[in-house]
Specification:
The structure holds 2 protein chains of 2 kinds. Chain A contains 24 helices and 2 strands. By secondary structure, chain A is mostly helical. Chain A has a two-stranded antiparallel sheet with strand order 1-2. The longest helix of chain A is centred in the first third of the chain and has 33 residues. The termini of chain B are far apart. In chain B, helix 2 packs across helix 3, helix 2 packs parallel to helix 4 and helix 3 packs across helix 4. Chain B has one domain: 3-Layer(aba) Sandwich (Rossmann fold). In chain B, about 40% of the residues lie in helices and about 25% in strands. Classes of the chains: A mainly alpha, B alpha/beta.
Chain lengths: ~525, ~260
């Protein structure tokens, strides 16, 4: 290959851009990660991972995560079946309600649980549960609350797009329900289910919000990491735990990639036909209603708690907590959060689109490298990314400014929106750029006038994903935020430390409200776009 | 007069050479089919001719001028793809109008209004006047391909290249589109190079056929001469036998139909 511009004119600019992106990834993900891992050379790893405290935390983490994952995937599977394999009405509405928990930070789930089932929880008082739900079961329930919507969405998608023809063939052949389950459903679901299980496992084991809130003395690895780094500034120990937390995420990522590549043989299928069965529908409806109540109970409780003077001593309604939160800077921090969320939504989406264009529509060997680099963030838990950034960027000018928060959130949440764009771009007619270049329209012209307009729905979803997650994240940012640029969600950890549950409840409520509002705006914008197109 | 003269083209992907020293000419105003099985290099020739890919060596002359290093848009050629490559977010009319306004490859420049008139005129020619405000996905495959043809013709290129434009269409649509395409060619006098792996299609439409296999040209001649004097065994097998089989099955079909009624 020569370096000059050829008649086909493809090589020079796109390869240069790809190299530039690879260098970016090197500095944004790979080098910080290496920096963190290299710290282990300076500490006695063997001592740390054989210490009683570490082993106890590891045992706790594995125990709660295993149990929570089983329950979470079980509930998610049951609900996905209830919605996708029945004739229930308002399925879009059900999907919305069932995924509301995805709009608040994990720590808020822990808080909701305390309000309902804590030592002074209102249900605890009714049923006489005096000691409250701290420790193992508290973490399990909180983690399930926080992780099952993600598992639900994944399983629902799989069931929703399952080809119905094998079932129709089986019906004609007269196979029993049992046979159909083992011969068709299970083989089909096996691979996606493995992905779901690993994704859920990773999500739960790396979360520190729930165990910090309801764990009590039951310390898990992420909580230990948080305490060691934030409380004792022990970066070495933090790095070792970070490396351990990387393991399940890396495994999940590899399994997911292996599954994804093979599972893409999209032949033309027929949607699953749901037969008429009133009894089945009634049961499914009952299950959905019970689950919705269970989901809304803690969320509704902290919505009320935010307006109560001092639970459970003084139950009068008041705006005192709001005043208190505002006094402590809630409005300023809300402003910070909105700024971060908006900037990350715009920059993250732009970067993801750019990256996806280079990997999905300009395929070379370098694209594959770039693709792998773009999805590495899938395998890096927020706490680990945050710690890596602290160590790598400490002496850089962006440290302690908003810039590092923009960057860390864009990277932390990059993989999912990137994959959305990658899939959408991959499906758009492959010859558009060629047509453009034969009639004299530049690549950028085709991108701007044809490809981006065709992807408007995806772009809105990507922005929504970045926004919502930036609003509620407490993991990566917890190591990086300073007093002046702290996002709102971190006030919850602060209030938790000061035992001001009511204020924390109010802050969670603001985050929920902002995220719901954003979802509504996105929904309206999408409808607007689909009308234009 | 030769419209195009191709001299000694070679091209490899990695270690495998897909075109071995190919030379041929295309006459002004002719309809030339390139016929061969998939993977024989016919699409690669097309992409090199229009400048979407570079040859390793060889020269392309158009009207006697070397265009080997000229960018696609300046070659005054158009291409129609199998998958239409329409702008899905624009209406049928907008597809053609947009190409006219943005194009850097026509002699004339088009402002929006002039382009609109021209687009309407071209779409009427391909029988789509009633579908101007529809989106491509609301049209049948044959109609979408007509939009693509209108969009290409509107820019008034000297040569139009077709990359298996009908292989995604059903038999009836193919038959009608074939004759329409020939009509359009007569009307505009445009030189057309048409890639296909369908022997029948090549014989029905072409002034000359170029038979290819694995990066080599076996024969380039009129349909009549290919039938009468096939150059080698490959041409006999791939072209003549296939045609005979098709004709035989048609005769068989006609006979059984005749008996039924």
């Amino acid at each position: 290959m020569t370096g000059t511009r050829t008649a086909a004119g493809k090589w020079v600019p796109s390869t240069a851009l790809k190299i530039l992106l690879c260098i970016f990834w090197l500095f944004a993900i790979i080098l910080p990660l290496i920096r963190m891992l290299s710290t282990m050379a300076t500490v006695n790893v063997a001592n740390i991972i054989t210490s009683a405290r570490f082993l106890r935390a590891l045992g706790h983490s594995l125990a709660v995560t295993a149990v929570a994952t089983i329950i979470s995937v079980g509930i998610a599977g049951l609900l996905a079946w209830c919605v996708s394999r029945t004739n229930l009405k308002h399925k879009a509405f059900l999907n919305t309600i069932l995924t509301i928990p995805m709009l608040i930070p994990s720590i808020s789930h822990g808080m909701g649980l305390i309000i309902v089932l804590g030592a002074n929880g209102w249900i605890s008082r009714i049923i006489g549960l005096n000691s409250g739900i701290y420790g193992f079961w508290g973490i399990v329930i909180g983690s399930v609350m926080y992780s099952f919507p993600v598992a639900y969405l994944m399983i629902y998608d799989v069931l929703h797009y399952e080809d119905g023809t094998p079932y129709e063939a089986a019906n004609v052949m007269g196979l029993s329900v049992k046979d159909k389950f083992f011969a068709i459903a299970l083989p089909y679901l096996r691979k996606p289910l493995i992905s779901v299980i690993f994704a859920t496992f990773t999500m739960v084991i790396t979360d520190y919000g729930v165990p910090l809130m309801v764990g009590g003395k039951y310390i898990t690895l992420p909580v230990m990491m948080y305490q060691d780094v934030i409380g004792m500034l022990d970066f070495g120990k933090g790095s070792v735990i970070g490396m351990i937390l990387l393991i399940p995420a890396v495994i999940a990522c590899i399994i997911d990639m292996a599954n994804r590549d093979k599972g893409n043989a999209n032949f033309v299928g027929k949607p699953y036909y749901v037969k008429i069965n009133k009894v089945r529908d009634h049961i499914a409806r009952a299950i959905c209603i019970i689950m919705i109540i269970l989901i809304l109970l803690p969320i509704g409780s902290f919505a009320v708690l935010g307006f109560i003077k001092k639970y459970p001593i003084d139950m009068t309604l008041s705006v005192q907590n709001i005043e208190q939160a505002v006094h402590m800077g809630a409005l300023k921090y809300l402003g910070n959060s909105l700024l971060i969320a908006v900037v990350v939504a715009v920059l993250g989406t732009a970067l993801a689109l750019f990256n996806a264009y280079m990997t999905a529509r300009n395929k070379t060997k370098l694209s594959y490298v770039l693709h792998l680099m773009s999805i590495t963030s899938l395998a890096i838990p927020g706490l680990v990314l945050g710690l890596s950034y602290v160590m790598f960027f400490k002496k850089s000018p962006i440290y302690g400014t908003f810039a590092i928060l923009f960057l860390v959130n864009s990277m932390h949440f990059f993989a999912s929106p990137y994959l959305m764009a990658y899939n959408t771009f991959g499906k758009i007619n492959e010859n558009l750029e060629d047509v453009g270049s034969t009639i004299g329209i530049s690549k950028w012209g085709i991108i701007k006038d044809v490809i981006l307009p065709q992807s408007s729905g995806t772009i809105l979803e990507m922005m929504g994903y970045f926004f919502v997650n930036s609003m509620m994240t407490i993991s990566a940012v917890s190591f990086l935020a300073s007093v002046s640029d702290k996002p709102l969600a971190l006030m919850i950890t602060q209030f938790e430390g000061q035992m001001q549950l009511e204020c924390a409840a109010f802050v969670s409520l603001i985050i929920l409200a902002v995220n719901i509002l954003l979802k509504v705006i996105l929904y309206a914008a999408k409808r607007g776009f689909s009308k234009i197109n | 007069m030769d419209k195009l003269e191709i001299r000694n083209l070679t091209k490899s992907f990695g270690h495998s050479e897909v075109l071995h020293d190919i030379s041929f000419t295309v006459r002004d105003g002719e309809f030339l089919s390139i016929l061969g099985p998939s993977g024989c290099g016919k699409t690669t020739i097309l992409r090199i001719l229009i400048g979407l890919e570079d040859a390793e060596s060889g020269t392309i002359l158009k009207d006697g001028v070397d265009i080997t290093k000229v960018p696609s848009a300046k070659r005054r050629m158009g291409i129609v793809f199998q998958n239409y490559a329409l702008f899905e977010n624009m209406t049928v009319l907008k597809n053609v109008q947009y190409a006219l306004v943005k194009s850097a490859s026509t002699k004339d420049t088009f402002d929006k209004e002039k382009a609109l008139e021209k687009a309407k005129e071209m779409l009427e020619l391909v029988g789509l006047s009633e579908h101007l405000d529809k989106k491509p996905r609301q049209l049948s495959g044959g109609q979408q391909q007509r939009v693509a043809i209108a969009r290409t013709l509107a820019l008034n290129p000297d040569v139009i290249l077709f990359d298996e434009p009908m292989s995604a269409l059903d038999v009836d649509t193919r038959l009608s589109l074939r004759s329409e395409l020939k009509e359009l060619q007569k009307r505009f006098g445009t030189t057309m190079i048409y890639i296909t792996h369908d022997q029948e299609e090549a014989f029905a439409m072409s002034d000359r056929i170029m038979v290819m296999e694995a990066g080599d040209i076996h024969q380039i001649d009129t349909p009549q001469n290919i039938v009468d004097h096939p150059a080698d065994d490959y041409v006999k097998k791939f072209v003549i036998n296939n045609i005979n089989t098709k004709i035989n099955s048609l005769i068989q079909f006609a006979r059984t139909e005749g008996q039924d009624s």
